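ugh ok fine here u go
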Amino acid sequence: MASSTHKQQQLQLPNMYGATAAPPPTPSTQSDNLLAKSDAADALSGLLQRLPSPTLSLPTRRSPSPTCPPIVSLSGDQNPSTTIIHDALQLGFFQVTDHAIPSQLPCSAESESLALFDLPRDKKESCFPKNWPLGYEGGDDEDGDGLGESFRLDSSCSTESSTEFSLDSLREFTRALEKLGLRIIDLLSRAVGFENPIGEDPSRFCSLMWISEGVPGNKTVLSGGFYPYIVGLHYQIRNQKYSLPADSGWVSVSPQVDAVMVTLGDIAHVWSNGKLKKVRGRPVGHLGDANNTRCISMSLLITLPMDSEVCPLIPKAICGDGEKDEQIEGSTGEEEGKLFNSFCFEDYAWRVYHERLLFKDPLHRYRI
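structure:
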């Protein structure tokens, strides 16, 4: 009996898609359906146009506007300590005005930097030999990041050949940024309450001028790279947006023209025992809509010599005269414990540069 039923079902299957199924639409019926739908759409459009406009308002998705970094003026009649400590605690970056760097100097330095990228590849490698972290790095070699070329120079912008090209403006610009950076470090140390460990002693710090060129066709990045630093300084020559890889995620900023954007690095974060926020790496430039527009980034990083040891510099809660220091916001006024273990700067710098640890906190392994 079951076998008979199964045979009946097999016999009925062709009829399910045969005479009982609707015939496929012909071109004439499709044309009629399209005309009917078009008439209905026109009628609906006319009805919507007669409705009051508030009924048609729809929410629009907007990308977040870039943030204007907090402004810290270094004019002689203002004390920037209060503003600096608040912005450094909350954000890890700000922009400096009234810094006394003439606007024509960074423009001249940029022209000299652009000429470096126009050199033949063999000249770049011979005039800027790799002496890590100094030297030239190509974006298409096995050690490159694939996002462009970069030069890393010391404060004197030293090269193997002084007759090949002139870097006088770039050298002067680097030293002007270095002088400003040392002043910023001193203001930060006094505001937080720890003793400045470098002062103006050239043996206690190093300056690294990092010059990168944007890649045509890539609108959102300049060549990457991560090297630990105390403070980073970037002069805003023209209107341009940047992305900062902060601990809380990527932040879009747009500094004002002729200001110097200051970012606080991981070394300042450890020195302040975690009080100062940090930016991981250098600002990432947005190249805009013109694919053929050349854009370079000149960032000065004030960092440490290779043989340095990094550790928290705990501020003293009691002054020599027995009175308490003025406490920063969030402080309990009690002697605080260290949040980080001491570590070798050279080992740390080598690891974060080659592992490119921008998406996880490289200081995590040193936290107590």
